[in-house]
Amino acid sequence: MGSDSDWSVMKKAAVTLKGFGIPFEVHVYSAHRTPEEAGRFAETARENGFGVLIAGAGMSAALAGALAAKTTLPVIGVPLGATLQGMDALYTTVMMPPGIPVASVGIDGAKNAAVLAAEILAVEDDSLAEVLKKEKAAMHDAVLAKDAALQAEVEKL
Known about the structure:
The protein is mainly α. It is built from six helices and three strands.
């Protein structure tokens, strides 16, 4: 993430990854204040065993693009709502030049970034794919349970 102040949002990605049993690291690297360190991290990420990078940043939100420029791994950007309700960060995250793509989730969407990272990793990991399948089935069942409760309440009207 671009700043330690981003942790309150990005922690959701860490919790989600941990829940899926996916090992991860969390760092503060700024595209502007620590460009060499951020670049070095991205350049060595594949050889260090990473399969996907998640980058959360607000304001100029340049971190995801800076990492994407230095790696061939998929990079998922989490635009953070630091200013302008996150719209500036969203536009920066999605408007990358040709050849340097960054996948993006919604503003402050750290949990979805982790789920997307898990789905990318699950392409080559059947056990992770099974965990994701069970998670989606649980969400399905939860929605149907909520609908059943609502129908019961409506019947009482």
